[in-house]
Amino acid sequence: MLDLVIRGGRVVTPSGVGNWDLGVQGERIAALGAPGTLEAGRVIDATGKVVVPGGIDPHTHFAHPIMSHPNEPGMTLGPEEDTRGMLFGGTTTHIDFAFVRPGGDIRSAIEQRSARWKGSAYTDYSFHVVLAGALELKVFEAIPEAIQAGFTSFKVFTTNILPPHPKRSGNRIDFGRIQHAMERIAPAGGIMTVHGEDEDIVQFNYEKHRAEGRMDGANLHLVHNKLSEQLAFRRTTALARHTGCAIYFVHTSAREGVEAIREARAAGAPVYGETLHQYACFNAEYYKTPRGFCSHTYPSLKFPEDQQALWSGLLGDGLSTLATDEYPTSLALKLKGKTIEDVTGGNLGAEARMGIAWTEGVVKRGMSLARFVDITSANAARIFGLYPAKGALAVGSDADIVLIDPSVKKALAKDDFHVSDYSPWEGWGIEGWPVTTLLRGRVMVENRRLVTDERAGRLVSRKIESAVLARPVC
Fold first, then answer.
1. CA-to-CA distance for 73 and 417, rounded, in angstroms?
2. Tell me: the pLDDT tens digits for 422-438?
3. pTM for this prediction
4. Does 371 lie in the same domain as 397?
5. What is the four-CA torsion angle of 473, 465, 375, 330, rounded to 10 degrees?
6. Do both 209 and 353 map to the same domain?
């Protein structure tokens, strides 16, 4: 007899959607059967619900130094707070970052972050390795070893994001070192993730706006502009073609970025794109509202035409994943900055991600259930080497399972969230919301109530399938 059966729901599997029983034994999915054919010690009635794989957020920044106020050091909230919210929102796995800066090394960065997360996360997790700054060339020699150990992705920044400050570490790595990294990542079976903005354009725009006295934060989209994204994406894809390295552009914000990704993919290059739900749902006009900076991250919000391009990419081809750039803080800190140089970036939206994607994608724009699973879970699992253990409701996969209730219709309120003292999604109308979440077979949230307060998240090892690194497969 199985441990648990989920019965009566519409189950979204890699082979299609059907009204199947979903059986769990231990931590894994053990069976899919016709309704009423599976027996278990416990049955969860999913009548009227849609059953999907646990969400995967491939872009979070927990316990991370806050960059916007270097004279007042602080940290974002940790996995203790944010991953609890993730469970409420249907996300069961996240990928954060281990930064390697000059004087550091890859192994130590991974070990430090792993120690910080152990016993602290409610969800499963892994880390991208960030190569930041003028790193010594010997640092890059450890890339194959890290990939072999299950850390398959390496992030680079093509801009420092903010103006130089003596108390703020820069993130930018030069294109010579980007090429050097690609030449080691590609043959070892890894992928490079890229924050793509042009440093010259961004820093000149800061200088120009400062000289003109146009320092209001509502001008952020004119500093982190569309041209900057276009130039950085195209330069990086050219390097990727030269080295044969697969790349993944984080937080694509502009139509020009989507177009660059599409062109590369049409030529057969293994290029993948991510966007964020705040880019798809807000534009730069929102900066002018009283809480407009709650939806700011770097790069900035853009224009309605860019929102349309992002939704086109999510509904069809061009963008593979919907992430968050999660950077959780208090409301006071998020709204503390007022200028183009001190507004705090990053989102607080991991808890809302799947529910917003359901309402805005499935309900309002006719996104298929299969595509919904792709952008919220399956594609991130494929690209970063978690599939099919994660991202699929299939026999042998981890029993990371979420029930979405399409009948939940309301305006979101502060009390619907469980991370900080605010959410940028307060007041947003939704039609459908995650109500029950299982992590590796354990019911963690049931009917929107936390069942256990145990931080059961584990570090997961990753290995990317060769096809993902050879051509655009998702």
1. 26
2. 999 999 999 999 999 99
3. 0.98
4. no
5. -140
6. yes
